[in-house]
Amino acid sequence: MRRRITVFGATGSIGENTIDLLTRQGGPESYDVVALSGGRNIARLAEQARDLQADLAVTAYPECYDDLKAALAGSGVEAAAGPEALVEAADRPSDWIMSSIVGAAGLVPGMRALKHGTTLALANKESLVTAGPLLLATAEQHKTRILPVDSEHSAVFQALVGEDIDAVERVVITASGGAFRDWPIEDLEKATPEQASSHPNWAMGQRITVDSASMFNKALELIETKEYFGIAPEKIDAVVHPESMIHALVGFRDGALMAHLGAPDMRHAIGYALNWPDRADLPVARLDLVELGQLNFRAACETRWPALRLAREVMAAGGLTGAAFNASKEAALDAFLGRQIKFTQMSQVVEAVLEALSRDGGLTNTEISLENVLHVDHLAREEAARVVATLEH
Ligand code: NAD
Ligand code: MG
To answer: 184-237 pLDDT, tens per residue?
Structure first.
């Protein structure tokens, strides 16, 4: 059966890898591409839409509409722009949607797709961190599935095939340690956005690359693990594994520890979600264990990476704490990239915002509705801006 496919964030790092796999698996010969979305890289979005013969291409930015329309002239691909157009794209009947917009902006289109019963391949971890229970309940209500695309969560998902979740004793999420894993801690405050934007093992978008250096990415992933798999926080751990060959491990009550190994190439996790429940031939490098020789592990130090400590607090608190955590993290990241704060001040901003917003049970006494999530997201960004303004840089 031909599947109808939509890719949100098609021009990003995950999006391009998704397009690569769709193309290798036959492109328009095999799939009906309903919609592709992107940002300001209009030339690339239009090229993807033409190549895959998409019905619709959407740019997130209304001011880019004319350029997109011009770039698509004569192609038969419809052009649209803005957040409402993204939601409208999510309303178009589709069988499989890749959610790979970066940031909380990915939540609404993903939720919308679930309401139509579409399978949601989820790279946008922010959706689970901000609104995990809501997302899962929506999928259940509309009898559809969320397939994890974050490499660690795809690894756990694969290790759990045929297993009883109650037999899981622990889940270990690996972390490369990012750009500064070998820096002396006292040098971290001098780290620049340029230095934080290079990853030792993975080629990814800039925001997640900086989040890897600060371990906010791993913090999001710990929360994502709790939300997606429903595993108790005390059973979830992060360990530094500089080679990024093991993506995650699942320990069972009998002491068995199942590891998922693979080259650091996101096409594995994307391809697994695209072909699930089958396995397809994927163009990823095969590991030569002898050449690899050894794999290393280190403790993930919460002094070096305070984001990990904050993740524990978020997991323990629950409710809307994840929404505040993610939004303040996004705001702190913007402030760091804009050179308003130091690298080490990002976690200070997030901690201050969590403290301010969680007073009087403000984040845990409220229902997790889309409206409340978006409200907390807004409040957290405002509070983060206030905190940033008080910090000395
Ligand atoms: P990226 O920055 O390379 O691409 C982001 C995409 O989203 C682009 O198409 C961009 O145009 C679009 N976009 C950005 N802001 C938008 C907005 N406000 N509204 C609509 N569209 C917007 O990011 P990425 O590295 O591909 O990451 C995408 C998501 O996947 C993130 O949630 C990230 O955490 C997650 N993820 C990425 C990787 C990876 O290897 N890159 C791995 C695991 C998870
Ligand atoms: Mg990951």
So the answer is: 999 999 999 999 999 989 899 999 999 999 999 999 999 999 999 999 999 999
Q: Do 177 and 293 sit in the same domain of this protein?
A: yes
156 shares its domain with 192: yes
Residue after which a domain boundary falls, among 97, 120, 148? 148
Share the mean pLDDT of the chain: 97
For residues 291 and 391, state if they share a domain: no
Answer yes or no: is 310 within a domain. no
Is the pLDDT reported for residue 393 higher than 80? no
The whole domain housing 220 covers 151-263+286-301
Is residue 189 domain-shared with residue 291, that is, in the same domain? yes
| pLDDT value at residue 365 | 87
3-state secondary structure the chain: CCEEEEEECCCCHHHHHHHHHHHHCCHHHCEEEEEEEECCCHHHHHHHHHHCCCCEEEECCHHHHHHHHHHCCCCCCEEEECHHHHHHHHHCCCCEEEECCCCHHHHHHHHHHHHCCCEEEECCHHHHHHHHHHHHHHHHHCCCCEEECCHHHHHHHHHCCCCCHHHEEEEEEEECCCCCCCCCHHHHHHCCHHHHCCCCCCCCCHHHHHHHHHCHHHHHHHHHHHHHHCCCHHHEEEEECCCCCEEEEEEECCCCEEEEECCCCCHHHHHHHHHCCCCCCCCCCCCCHHHHCCCCCEECCCCCCHHHHHHHHHHHHCCCHHHHHHHHHHHHHHHHHCCCCCCCHHHHHHHHHHHHHHHHHCCCCCCCCHHHHHHHHHHHHHHHHHHHHHCCC
The residue whose CB lies within 8 Å of the most ligand 1 atoms, and thus the one to mutate among 6, 8, 13, is 13
Q: What CATH code is carried by the domain that includes residue 331?
A: 1.10.1740.10
Ligand approaching nearest to the C-alpha of 153 = 2
Instruction: Tell the residue nearest (CA) to atom 43 of ligand 1.
Output: 150
- Of 20, 67, 100, which is best to mutate to test ligand 1, by the most ligand atoms within 8 angstroms of its C-beta? 100
pTM of the entire predicted model:
0.98
- Provide the pLDDT for residue 132: 98
Any domain includes 340: yes
Residues having CB closer than 6 A to ligand 1 are 9-15, 38-39, 60, 100-103, 105, 123-126, 150, 202, 204-205, 207-208, 266
Same domain, 33 and 86: yes
Number of domains in the chain: 3
Quick one: which ligand is closest to 268's CA? 1
For residue 103, give the ligand 1 atom closest to its CA: 32
Tens of pLDDT along 236-285? 999 999 999 999 999 999 999 999 999 999 999 999 999 999 999 999 99
